[in-house]
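Lab notebook, bench 4. The sequencing result for the construct came back, and we need a structural model before the next group meeting so we can plan mutations. Quick request posted to the team channel:

Model the 3D structure of this chain.
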Amino acid sequence: MPLRSQFAKEIHWLASTGITTGWPDGTFRPVTPVTREAMAAFLYRFWHKVLLGMPTDGGRRPYGGWFAFRSGLSVSVSAPQPYTPSSTAAGHEGYPAAVVTTVTLRNDTGGAISPFDIWVSADSASQEASEIFDMDRGIDGPPDISIAPGSSASWKVAFGVDDARDVVVRIKVFTSDFGTAYFAS
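Done. Here's the predicted structure in C-alpha cell form:
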C-alpha cells in the first residue's frame, strides 16, 4: 500500500499487529465494504493481540517455550515431572498423582514486578489440579521479592493431578497485561 494513500498509516498498523491480513493477492482495498465475518475476525484479533497481548492461538505454548506479554513480561514453564510430596505437604490429598514444574519470569518491562501478580494453576484430564505446598521440599510459593527490570526469577510449583501425562499449566497475569498463557505438551 503506498504511504500516501488514504488510511495508509492505519492499515500499516493493522497489518503490523496482525489484526488484518489483507486479501489473498496482498492488497488491502480500504474502500471495499467489510463483511460481518471479516469485522468479527478484526475484533477478535484486536482483542487478543492488542488488548490482551495474546496471540490468536489462545496463548498456548509448549513446555519450555516462552510467552511474551505486551508489557515486556515473559514467562516459561518447564515440563511437569513426577513428584512425591513429603509427609508434611498439603494439597495432594485425593489425587492419584503429583507433578512439579518450574515457572520462570523474565522482566523486560520498565518497572519492578511482584511474583504475587502472577497466578499459576493447572488442569489435568480436564479437571482442575490442586496446588501442593511442601515446605520441606522448598515448594512454598513464589519468591517474596520484586523482580527488577532486566532480571528473572524462577520457582517450583507442584500440583496434585488426575493424570500426570495430561497437564496444562495456566499463568494468569494481574498487571496491566491481564492476560493468560497456557503451557502444554
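The chain has a mean pLDDT of 85.
Will bring this to the meeting.
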